[in-house]
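Researcher: We're teaching a course module on how sequence relates to structure. For the next exercise, students receive a sequence and then see the predicted structure as tokens, so they can try to spot secondary structure elements on their own. Here is the exercise chain.
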Amino acid sequence: MNIPLYGLHCYEELRAMAYDRYVAVCKPLEYHVIMTKQKVLKLLIFTWLYSLLETCVGSALTARLPLCGNDIDKIYCFNWEIVKLSCIDVTANNIYGYIMVFSHVFQATFIIISYIQIIRASLRSKAERVKFMQTCLPHLITLINFFISLLFDVMYARYGKGQNLQALRNILGMEFLVVPPLLNPILYGIKLAQIRHRFVKMYSRRLKAVRQG
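Model: And here is the predicted structure for the students to work with:
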């Protein structure tokens, strides 16, 4: 349950961040009026409750299924891999899966529209472009990386058969679990002057030592 919850919660967080960036770039004078402490708290609570609800419903539908095997072709336990081992009809799981897909496609559309508006606003002046690079580019890189890895992981899990491209599936599965947690602190931390200067100083010192050696 932990891995699906992690993935769904990351998705909800990215959607909330897209909304925050949209308000910051497209409505800067109204930002503190719109993004109040109460609204931020509501967004945080909603992201946790919604992702937890999705995970619990999916887990409950899967837990009722009798299984005809115990072998999954994935390096970690994934809900759909367990469903494929079921001995009975899984129509309810399929319906719920499609509801989840449509829900997340709708959310992805919201994120895309938000960034279209952000990019349009950023093209108005050089100052806006600099602001976009500083505040939105790290989030956009994180978003693209998360979507690509999640899309391929889910598609291979749902429609892949046998051992075809098993190595690629394992790599994509590990990328989804490992790369975002490692990449995000760098992307967001590098914006802070103290962290950035410390980072540059540390690697400049190492590069100098390598050259002298």
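Model: If you want an answer key for the exercise: DSSP finds nine helices and no strands in the chain. The first helix runs from residue 2 to 26.
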